[in-house]
Amino acid sequence: MRPDKDFDSAPALAGGRHAASGAAAHALRVLMREGRVALAGPWGAGKTTALEEVLRALSAEPLSTEPPSTEPPRRVLRVTTVEEDRGHVFGALAQMLSHCGAAEFAQLSTRQQEVVDRLLHRGADEPLAASEQLPARLAVTALLAAGLWILAVDGSQWLDPASADVLGYALRTLPAPGLAAIVTERVQGRAQAAARLLGGHPAQVDVLPLDAEETAALLDAHALPTRWAGPLQSHCGGHRLLTSVTCTELARLPAAQRRRPALPEQTVDAAEAWLRATLGEPARHTLMLAALTSHPALPLLLRAGRSDAEEHLARAQAAGVLRVDPASAVHFTAAALARAAARSEGRPGRAAAHLTLARAVGDPVHEVRHRALAADLPDQGLAEDTESAAATAREAGERALAAELFLLAAEITPPARSAVLIRRLSYAAQEAACAGSVDIARQAADALTASRAEPADQVTALLAVVDAHGQAISDLEPLLARCRELATGHPGLLAAVELRAAIAANIAHHAPDRALRAAGRAAELAAAGGHRPLQAAALTMRARMERVLGAPDAPRTLAEALALGVPAQHSGIRNSAQYLAARHAVFDDRLAEARERLLELLALAEHEGEAEDLVDIWRSLAEVDTRLGACAPALAWADQAVRRSTAAGLSMGPAWYTAALTQSAAGSFAAALRTAACGARASQEEGDGLYVSRNLWVLGAVQLHTGEVAGAVASLTAVAEAQRHVPTADPGMFRWQPDAVEAFTCAGRLDLARELLERVRPVAGPPGADSGPGSALDRARGILLARTGAGEEASGVLHGAAAAFGRMGLPLEQGRTLLALGRVERARRRQAAARSAWEAARAVFEETGARPWQELTRELLERAGGPASAAGPAPGPGRLTESEARLADLICQGATNQQAAQHMFISVKTVEGMLSRVYRKLGVRSRTQLAAARAAAVPGPDVRTPPG
Description:
By secondary structure, the protein is mainly alpha-helical.
C-alpha cells in the first residue's frame, strides 16, 4: 500500500463538492494573486484532492486576471512522489519531462536537448555526477522559460535532492506568474520542503480538519444520520480520510444496525496505516503505552521506560497524530488513532504494557485500572481494589472512569459472589448514565438481565440506558414499558420510570400535556415512597411543563421543589429546581438575575457536574448574553457548548440551535443558516421534536432577515404546525411567533398573520406593559399595520416597541425594531425619519458588535444615500453585501447555481440575480475572473513561512 496515494484524496461531499474544496478555493485565490502556493496538511488530509481541484479550475480558463484574457491555456507539469522516490536521482525531473513533447524540446539548443535526453534515460540506481547538476539546471530552466506552465508537485517531502535542486533553481530564476507553481507537503505546521522549493517565504494554505457541520454534510451525503456528527468528530478528529472511511463503512450496515455510530474496524485499519506510514516501530510502541493510559503524558512515558519518548512524541506531533500541550499531556487527534496505537500489539503485549504502566502511573486509581486491564482471570482481591478505585473516581466527579472501573470490577468478580457482581454492575450502569456512556450502560444492563438480578436492579440499569441516550430517546418506549412491568409494586421505582416517561413525552413526542400528567404521577409516587430527591426532580419537571402550557401553578410548583432542599448536583444540575429557576428568569427577561444564577451553577458544574450540565448552562448563558447584546461572550459560550457536545458524543441538535441563534445575532447569517439546518436534521433524526422546532425557528427567522420570504414562511409554518397542540404556550419560552407574523405579512398572507397575532398577543402580557415577547409581537403588529396602509399607526406602534426594548435593556431587539421603523417611514416617503431610525439602529448594532445586523443597516443606509457609517468603509461598486460575498465564495469553490441555492437556502432565481449584481459590482464576466477579483479584494489569511 502506498499511503499518500491510497489515502490522501478525500471523496466528494453532497452536491458534488469535495471535502477539501475550502482549501482548494483559498489556494486558487492565492495562486492567481501570487503565482506560487504551498498546500500543507498531515497524512490523509486531502492535499491531493485540493491540488486536483485547483488544476481542474485552472484548466477551464487562463490564469491571467486581466479580463478579457488573450493568454493561451497553460499546460500542467505534474510530479507525484512516494517515499521510495527519494533515492532515485533526477527521478522527479524525469517524471516532469515526460509530460513534454517534441515541440517543447525542439526549442532547446542541441546541448540542452542532450542533457534532457540524458535525464530521461539515466538508470534508477546510477549515482549523481558532480558535472550533471549545472547543465540540468540550465536546460530545465530554458525549457520552462519557453512556455506557459503550471508546475504541480504532489509530495515535495519525497523529492529526490537532485530534482529538488533543479526545480528550485528554475523557480527562483523564472518569476511568477510566468512559471506558476502549486506544491503539496505532508506536514503538520509550517511547510519546509515546499518552502525550500518555492523559495523565499511562500504563501501556505493548510488543509484543515472537518468541523462538526462539515462532518454532518458528509454523513448526509452517505444517507446517514447527521446527529452522528458529534461521535464521528470524536472518532476521527475531523480527519477527512478517517471520516470518509467511517461514513462508507457505516453506510454499508443494515438499517437495523445503525443505532449508534460504532468505530468500524476499517477506520482503525486506516489509522494504523497512518501510524505505519509516518512512524517507526519504537515510536509506535511509545504511542501504544500512551493510548493504553487514561491521561498520557511525557513524564509517565519516561517513567515507563521509554527514554526516547520526547523524540517519539515530537515525530508523532509532526505527523498530525497527536499534540502535546504545554503541561506535557498527550492528546491523540482522533480516537481511531488511539485505538490503532493500542492494538499495535496482541493481548499478551498489551497486558505486559498495562503492568508496566501500573508501576509507572503513580496514581492509585489508575494503578488499579491497569492491573485490572491486565487480568485474564477472576480475582477477588483485585476486584475489591477496582471497586474501591471506582468509588474514588465517582467522588472526584470522573463519572466515565468510575463506570469503566465498576464494570471492570464486575468482570473479574468470581462467579460465586453474585450479590457483589450485581452491585458492581448496577453502579457501572448508573455512572455510565451520568457520563453518557451508552455502551457501558448497555453492557451492564445486559449482564444484570443475564444474572437474573432483582427487578429493582434491572430497572435501575435499564433507566441508566435511557438516561445515557440524552435527547435521542424516541425509540426507547419498549424499554420504558419493560421498566414499568418490572417496577410494579415499587412506588419509588415507578416514580423514576414515570419521570423518564415525562421527559420522553416532552422531547420525543412534543406532548407537554402528557408530560405534565406523567410528571405529576412521578411526584406523587416519589412522595409516597419518601424519596425526596426524586420528588424534587418530578416537581421540577411538572413546573417546567406547567410553564410550557401557560398554567399559573408553575411558580408555586417550582417553589415546592426548591423547598425540598435537594442539592442541584444530586440528580444532574440541568434537571434541578435551581437550574429551572434560572431558566424562568431567562423566560421573563430578568437577565441580570438569570446570569447570576447561571454563573453560580456553572461554578458547581465545573467542579461536580456532568458534560450535559456544562453544555446546558453554557447554552443558557449564550442566550442571555445574546439578548443583552454581549455578542462576543455569547459566541464564545455557544462555541464551548458545540465543542463539548461534540467531544462527549451528546445530541447535537440543542447545541447547534444555540450556535445558530447566536450566529444570527452576532456572527453571520450564512453561518446561522448552515448551523440551523444541521440542527434541524440532527433533531429530526433523533425524534427530538422540541429542537426540530427551535432550529426551524432560527432558520426561518434568518431567511426572513435575508429576504428569502418564501423559505421563511415554509420554515415558520412548520413550527406553527408543531405548536398547534399548545395554543396557550408561554411565548417567553419559545419566541417564534413574532417572526412568523412578520414572515406571513411580508408574504402577503395577512389572514395568517392576523390569526396568529390575535391568538398569541393576549398570553404575552397586557398591551403597554414592558414584556420582551409582547414588544416583539407589537413590532410584528406594526409591520402588519404598515402593510394594510395604516402607516401612521404603524409608526407609533414601532416607536413604542423600540422604547420598551430600550427600557428592558434588550438592545438587539431595539435595533431590529428601529430597522422596521425606518422601513415604514421610507414607505411613507419620510426619508429623513427613515434615515434617523437606521442611524440609531446602526449605533446600537455597532455598540453591541452585532455584525450581521450592522451589514443589513449599512445596506439600507447606502440605498438611502450618503455614507453608511462615519467609521465604516465608503460605499463603492466593488463592495459586496454579506450574502453576495458568501455567494461569491461558493461560486469560487466550484458550486453551481443550484448547489449555491441549496447551501444558502434561497431559490436559484435569487442566486442568479445576486450573481449578476456580484459580476456587475466587481466588473467581471466569468467565474475564473470572479475568483481573481475575490483573491485581490479579499485575500484571506496570509499564512507565510517565517523568516529564518
